[in-house]
Design a protein that fits this description.
Layout: E1 5-8, H1 22-32, E2 36-43, E3 48-49, H2 52-56, E4 66-67, H3 74-87, E5 92-100, H4 106-110, E6 117-121, E7 125-127, E8 132-134, H5 145-156, E9 166-167, H6 187-195, E10 201-205, H7 212-220, E11 225-229, H8 242-251, E12 254-255, E13 264-266
Parallel strand pairs: 1-2, 2-5, 3-8, 5-6, 6-9, 9-10, 10-11
Antiparallel strand pairs: 3-4, 7-8, 11-13, 12-13
Helix pairs in contact: 5-6
This protein binds zinc ion (ZN) (2 copies).
One zinc ion binds at residues 98, 121, 123, 168-169.
Length: 267
């Protein structure tokens, strides 16, 4: 059995409005044998300077190049979840959200409707030059990528006040890494960031498969739970890479929880 997909987007996320489909994602999840899917739609309350995203979402970008992401339509989202649960009774369909920089928006996030899963992310960093938040790889233009990644990991350690159960894609800046990435170059900083998250779940994001060394450090630093996330924005990508991700989690000592969508736990 494949692991549950705990991080998927649909037409209710601002960056999947045109390509996402909750219904098609559920159908695809059933077809490939996923036990559970969590629709963690984007809640990005921090306006940020966007790179390639700005091209695709120009209607959301202001005159200064800052992207303002709209919130999901929570009512339509809830209705769609109900319809999918009725149509796909063999699939556990969980509600959720992916919150960018949850530690910066504690009060606003506390007022949102409750969901089954809250994935916390760090999608942007403060850019002194531009006096704005920016996608991490935009900062590579002015500073060496390793320095930016160290800043990113330091910011992860400041996310304690944020209300989220799972930390997503710890290697987010590596998605646009110049050259070969070796986690051992950042062992101390990665271990420190992992230690700051041990009360939460660490996500094995498969968009850029989480490096097995980081997973091993998670267990060594006291991490007890992992989740899996394809981060699919289109139905065809749900569960991508999950056979390998499940094998790697098993090898690191993690095993399925009680219910289909539960995090995997380490004995
Ligand atoms: Zn994300
Ligand atoms: Zn995502």
């Amino acid at each position: 059995m494949l692991p549950p997909d705990g991080h998927v987007h649909s037409e209710f996320s601002w960056d999947a409005r045109r390509v996402g489909s909750m219904r098609a994602t559920c159908a695809r999840a059933v077809a490939i044998g996923l036990p559970s899917v969590a629709f963690t739609e984007h809640v990005d309350l921090t306006p940020f300077r966007a790179g390639f995203l700005a091209g695709s979402f120009g209607d959301l970008v202001d005159a200064d190049g800052i992207l303002h992401a709209p919130l999901p339509d929570f009512d339509a989202y809830a209705e769609s979840l109900d319809r999918c649960r009725a149509e796909f009774p063999g699939l556990e369909v969980l509600s959720g959200r992916e919150v960018g920089q949850p530690h910066l928006h504690v009060a606003e996030l506390a007022a949102l409707p409750p969901v089954d899963r809250v994935v916390g992310s760090l999608h942007c960093l403060w850019d002194e030059e531009a006096s704005a938040y920016a996608e991490p790889w935009l900062l590579f233009e002015d500073r060496p990528a390793p320095d930016v990644f160290r800043d990113y990991l330091a910011e992860v350690c400041r996310m304690g006040p944020g209300d989220f159960d799972t930390f997503a894609h710890l290697d987010y800046p590596v998605r646009s890494w110049p050259g070969e990435f070796d986690p051992r170059d950042f062992e101390e900083e990665l271990r420190t960031a992992l230690r700051s998250l041990t009360d939460r779940c660490l996500e094995i994001n498969t968009r850029l498969p989480l490096h097995p060394t980081i997973l091993r450090w998670w267990a060594e630093e006291g991490g007890r739970r992992v989740t899996f996330g394809s981060d699919a924005h289109e139905a065809r990508f749900v569960g991508t890479g999950f056979a390998q991700a499940g094998e790697r989690a098993s090898a690191a000592g993690f095993a399925p929880g009680r219910r289909p969508g539960d995090p995997w736990v380490r004995a």
